[in-house]
Amino acid sequence: MPQRLQNMTVQKRIEVFHQLGSRLNSIDQDQLEEICYSAGNGNSWFTAESVSAALSAWGKVLNETQLIKWTAPYTLSPKKPMKVGLVMAGNIPLVGFHDLLSVLIAGHIAHVKLSSQDTYLMQFMINEIKSISEEMGQQIVLVERMNDADAIIATGSDNSARYFKHYFASKPHIIRQNRTAIAVLNGEETKEELKAFGDDYFQYFGLGCRNVSKVYVPKGYELPRLIDALLGYEKVLDHHKYRNNYDYNKSIYLVNKEPHLDSGFFLMRESEELVSPISVLFYEYYNSPAELDLVLATNSEKIQCVVSANAWYEGSLPLGKAQNPEHWDYADGVDTLEFLSGI
Fold first, then answer.
1. Is it true that 3-178 and 180-318 share their CATH fold?
2. 30, 47, 88, 188 - which has most CB atoms within 10 Å?
């Protein structure tokens, strides 16, 4: 490895990503349309709206102030940069970018296995990094196998996670599996607050681990209040895959005579399960705050984040903010930079 890679200070690495954020914020309409078109060709769930939202979100957080705040608590000057294998997911646009950012800003070398579902966008970001900094560009290696990796960060389903844990048992690793987000209502939410919840549920069509798939409501809560507040999101039906899921789940509930509510563009069904099918929002009643606390504590290992109005529930985010994590809102609650600073 060239000596100059080891000479990149944390501040220099931060400057690279600050410049990347500036570029994302200055993408013109023609370029954005080209990016959205190409990304959509690779994954039909990646609509122009979804891709634009992902690029905009990264543009906002890739700035010097937030990057310094994020990295300040850690020692990120490895004596010998390690090869860190990244097995990326591709369920929503750029979902794997935080891992790449973490490895590079920690001063290591990223051995990246791209998801076939999110190849174009990740390659776009990698190309931008390389054009900003040749040194950092040399720290990114695209691979198909992880034979040479010294450590592993892998994201996948519960089944693939079991395989990863076995296969990479001898190497330092972070292995992530299925998680979901939940919402907690207390009945005092305004219509505007409930409308904001629509972003937590509908953005990326519910495909992300930070998408709310279940809502807990107090006993006696009138569910039509929530449905009425979400009427502005009917456009999700314009997407053929979402509509297919909606039609399928609706037909299953009708044929099996399962009680449910039908808004006309999403379904609600009472369930103790956490993860709902696409186009379905599960709900469950709670009798007291203490009962709710116990239920959430019991399921904590499957919950990525919690949202509530003005973040009234301890440890939650405000309604509408599930898809806007900060750098330090680590997936599965595992501190990626702490892991990388210790290998």
1. no
2. 88
Indicate the residue type of 144: E
Confidence of residue 1 (pLDDT cuts 50, 70, 90): very low
* 7 CB-contact burial (10 Å; exposed 0-12 / middle 13-18 / buried 19+): exposed
Q: How far apart are CA 155 and CA 143, in angstroms?
A: 16
pLDDT recorded at residue 158: 82
> Measuring CA to CA, which residue among 111, 152, 118 is closest to residue 50?
118
Backbone angles phi, psi at 101, to 5 degrees: -55, -45
Q: Quick check: 159 pLDDT over 90? A: no
Tokens of 285: 């009643």
Distance, in Å, from the CA atom of 168 to the CA atom of 223, rounded to the nearest integer, reads 46
Left, alpha or beta for 311 (phi > 0: left; psi -120 to 50: alpha)?
left
Cβ partners under 8 Å of residue 130, min gap 6: 136, 137, 140
Domain residues of the chain, as ranges?
3-178, 180-318
Helix (H) or strand (E) run with residue 132 in it: helix 119-132
Element (H, E) at 61: helix 48-61
Q: What band does 7 get if pLDDT is binned at 50, 70 and 90?
A: low
Query: 286 forms bridges with which residues in the sheet?
Result: 218
Confidence of residue 284 (pLDDT cuts 50, 70, 90): very high
> Rounded mean pLDDT of the chain?
95
Amino acid letter, 271: S
Task: List Cβ neighbours of 151 (8 Å cut-off, separation of 6 or more).
Answer: 82, 83, 84, 85, 171, 172, 173, 339, 340, 343
- Residue 268 confidence class, pLDDT cut points 50, 70, 90: very high
- Which class does domain 3-178 fall in? alpha beta
For 180-318, give the CATH class. Answer: alpha beta
Contact predicate 42/119, CB 8 Å: yes
Whether residue 4 has pLDDT greater than 70: no
Per-residue pLDDT tens for 189-205? Answer: 999 999 999 999 999 99
Q: How confident is the model at residue 101 (pLDDT cuts 50, 70, 90)?
A: very high
Q: For residues 207 and 290, what is the distance between their CA atoms, to the nearest angstrom?
A: 30
Q: What is the phi/psi pair of residue 95, to 5°?
A: -65, -25
